[in-house]
Amino acid sequence: MVSPNSWQITPKQPENNLPKAHGSGRGLTNRCTMVTATEKDQITAEEKFTRLLRQNKLKVTQPRLGVLKIISEKETAISQPELEKMLGDTVDRVTLYRVLATFEEKGILHKIFDLHGTATYALCSTECDEHHHHDEHVHFICSSCNSIYCLDDIKLPKINLPEGYQLQSVGINAVGLCAECKALTK
Question: Of 178, 184, 5, whose CA–CA distance to 77 is shortest?
Fold first, then answer.
């Protein structure tokens, strides 16, 4: 059994083909990576998001592209109200709820609840699809700033259920102080 004292928040190794978010590196998950190519061969973030939407048989719309852009640039999971503020008047609330619900259904995003019960969203791994989410990892929630980090390197244990039971999801949250909040307490 792994003790909480042995857990480490380490920078996420890129695992899919989305562009790396700028300003990351606080030991959190950011499922994006920069494409190494010459300028003329370089694929833009919008082209990658367009490809992701088409792979999931979704129409490419500005609201969907906007949500993907913002979430891919965030170091932490983001709530619907935060997304709404960042998108401004470009996307109405109903459309945003529909985009988030669709992305969750298609396995593009996964939902995590913060310490106040607010739903937040983070990008799924490339292994997720509309039939099954494979984001089986621990989430770290800062008890001071309420930020949520995906800890992909800490896998959840296999759960053996009694006969007749069917597992639908597992969620483990580690709660403590993030690096920034801990630094403020010194």
Answer: 178
CATH number at residue 123: 1.10.10.10
5 lies in a domain? no
Domains of the chain: total = 1
How far, in Å, CA of 18 to CA of 73, rounded? 10
- Report the mean per-residue pLDDT for the chain: 79
pLDDT at 167: 83
pLDDT at position 155, please? 78
Q: Which residue has the higher pLDDT, 122 or 32?
A: 122
CB 112 within 8 A of CB 122: yes
Give residue 73's pLDDT band: very low, low, confident or very high (50, 70, 90): very high
